[in-house]
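Subject: for your reference before the review

Hello V.,

The reviewers asked for a structural picture of the protein, and I figured it would be easier to keep everything in one thread rather than splitting it across files. Below is the amino acid sequence we used in the manuscript, unchanged from the supplementary table.
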Amino acid sequence: MTRICIYGAGLIGCYLGGRVLAAGGNVRFVGRPTMGEALRQKGLTSSRYDGRSWHAPPETIVFGPDATMASDADLVLVTVKSGSTAAAARDLAEVLPPTAAVISFQNGLGNGALLREALGNRTVLDGMVPFNVVSKGPGTFHQASEGHLYVQAGGDADQRLAIFDRAGLPLTRPANMRSVQWAKLLLNLNNAINALAGLPLKQELSQRGYRRCLATAQREALSLLDKAGIEPARLTPLPARWLPALLELPDFVFGMLARRMLAIDPSARSSMAEDLAAGRPTEIDWINGEVVRLAAGLGRAAPVNARLCELVHDAEAQSPRSSWTGEALLEELRRAAHK
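And here is what came back from the structure prediction:
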């Protein structure tokens, strides 16, 4: 049986690990001691927006605080925040068997490259999780929106990946993973807006002012992708380049045409909003910051996404934090664009 290590037992890590564990997989978790204690007491429940759920009882949980849990792993799913990737790569390099395969299920674009650099000849594949996961209480993790997993084609990990199908988590294996990552990042540009709004995702996306902020950030990114010759993959019913126009439609029309986009658990918030609420550093530099770095590499600027980075960093330092209305945030971004 494939030995799997979840390196980063947070929302995504626990949900994926819980699904695989409930399907009979051999799973170990690495994470904070507080999470380990919760799982040992409650077990691990994974649920979906369509009402299905799975439970792994407490006695099936194998949890530890460091990379030694991966010392005999066949497959490692790296689900730590992007800011922790370099440290995770160093720790894993010391213990991973040379035959182990690693998948980066993380936000941003550069995590796979960091892992490959540190892990030498081991197979490292980029992955992408398109759905939101929220905590419904200790040991309970809920997939709040639809979508299926993506894992880069190639490598020698096919046999080890079969467990995902058995767990009801089918994989798409694109050859051009960078196109998929950019398409996901275009959607993730909303994470900052959701965090600044201080609202659940469904409520935020139901308001035109916030959607126009997202459209502004996406248009800036799409212009830069054109300049760089990068075509984002199609992850939604509409091509990525049509999304800004859809987002700017009046609320009633948007609600009619974008029902799938709004098919989100009413309590779901972006991971960035969850990080802000918990007082943790966000991944803003690995999401909107990627657009800023792309612009710099092209000798151009990305003032809208740069301003969103600044606003989120400001919010990280605030206590208590104030929230932005959609109209006020849109005006702020427009001012930044015209400086």
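For the response letter, the relevant points are probably these. The first strand starts at residue 3 and ends at 7. Residues 208-228 form the longest helix (21 residues).

Happy to draft the paragraph if you're swamped.

O.
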